[in-house]
Amino acid sequence: MKKNMNVFLAGVILGLIVMGIGLLVIYRPMMLNKESLWKESVIAKSNTEINAVKKANETSKKLDKNLQVLNIDFQKKMKQTNFVGSFYGVKDNEEFTDAGLGYANASKKILNGKDSMYSIASIQKVMTTILLGQALLQTKHNLDEPLSNFLPDVPNAKNVTLRSMLQMVSGYAPQSAPKGKNLSGQKLYEYVINNMEVGNVGKFKYSAVNYLLLTFVIEKLTGKSYEDYFKEIIKQPLGLTHTDFQQDIVNNEERAVSYKSNTKDNYKEIFEMTMGQYNYEKGTGNLFMSSKDLFKVLSQYLKGNIIPMTMVRELNRPEGQTTYCGGLYHNESRVTAHGMERGFEPTVLMSYDGKSGIVSQGNMKLKKYTNMNSLIKIYPTLFKQD
Predict the structure, then answer these.
(1) What is the CA radius of gyration of the chain?
(2) Residue range 202-233, pLDDT digits in tens
(3) Alpha helices in the chain (DSSP H)
(4) Which regions form coiled coils (predicted)?
(5) How many C-alpha atoms does 30 have within 13 Å on its Cβ side?
(6) Is the pTM of this model over 0.85?
């Protein structure tokens, strides 16, 4: 009996071995074929990735070469204008120039360069516009409300809207800065409202007093100083490392000195401004920035990355015959920002989508509007329509 059981078990084991060999004979080719297909797939995928990288590198090299040519062309043209200052340029989100010409501080032999900081003068009105837009969103107010809702003691405030102030059709006219006085806060506010001129609403008249008053609206809405709110909404989120108010960079060697001269090599005559004069430019001309930082703010603003795009559009709706609104001049294909402040002349030309543009900041006054006029001529040659 036991012998028969052993024979049976041996037969079962032998049968399993034979069956295993048979299955191996049948499925091995299939397994090999599947493994081969998998290897071919991996190789094909690898080759595709390699080709994609090669193509990207070739495109990058071509792009780099094009940008290098653009940089050389631009710098050559800027030198021909006798420009003194720094500039920064981007085309289709790719930086192509970031350099300077001449001295930022001739007596200390400090050249204009990437980190040089200049008064952005009237272009600061764009910063004030951004802060106003954000403050209105936070407090659920709008641009078509009268100024009297925020600053009731300003003359004719019931008939002037925040929008009309952005467009400079409020009728408010400039007044001279207080001589020999360094006013700030409530004392500055009282001086402004007691000395400003008031005209008819609806006619464009360029006047910084509109934006100076808007800084007080911003402070009223937020409960914060204009300077602190700027740092919270713009400077810190964007990581601006070469941006500060005049009172904070008096002794900073990266702050450029402004000069008045008939030739680009004459650095003898310096423009001076007192702290009182700078305080009077609150929100309209007391901010210093590098060209790269300035480009970054305007580009991110137009892209809707600082405040929502719906508010960006609201803040940039010029009406009537003026093309000015929110610190920018609106042309068919681009926006322009420009300022003049005692030897400083910042100029920005940028596409509406914020992807391409030029910032140039001069610190030597040769002739009126030298920087802006030169850049307007150069700009079309840099950004030709394909």
Answers:
(1) 32
(2) 999 999 999 999 999 999 999 999 999 999 99
(3) 2-80, 124-139, 162-166, 185-195, 209-222, 226-230, 236-238, 275-280, 291-302, 309-315, 370-382
(4) none
(5) 5
(6) no
**What does the mean pLDDT of the chain come to?**
87
288, 333, 382, 57: CA torsion to nearest 10: 90
How far is it, in rounded angstroms, from Cα 224 to Cα 136? 14
Instruction: Check whether 100 has a pLDDT greater than 50.
Output: yes
Return the amino acid letter for 276: G
The pLDDT score that the predictor gives to residue 9 is 54
DSSP class of residue 172? E
What span, in angstroms and rounded, lies between the C-alpha atoms of 325 and 125? 10
User: Residue 128 to residues 58, 82, 362, 365: CA-CA distances in angstroms?
Assistant: 43, 32, 22, 26
pLDDT at residue 35, rounded to an integer: 53
Distance, CA of 346 to CA of 338 (rounded, Å): 6
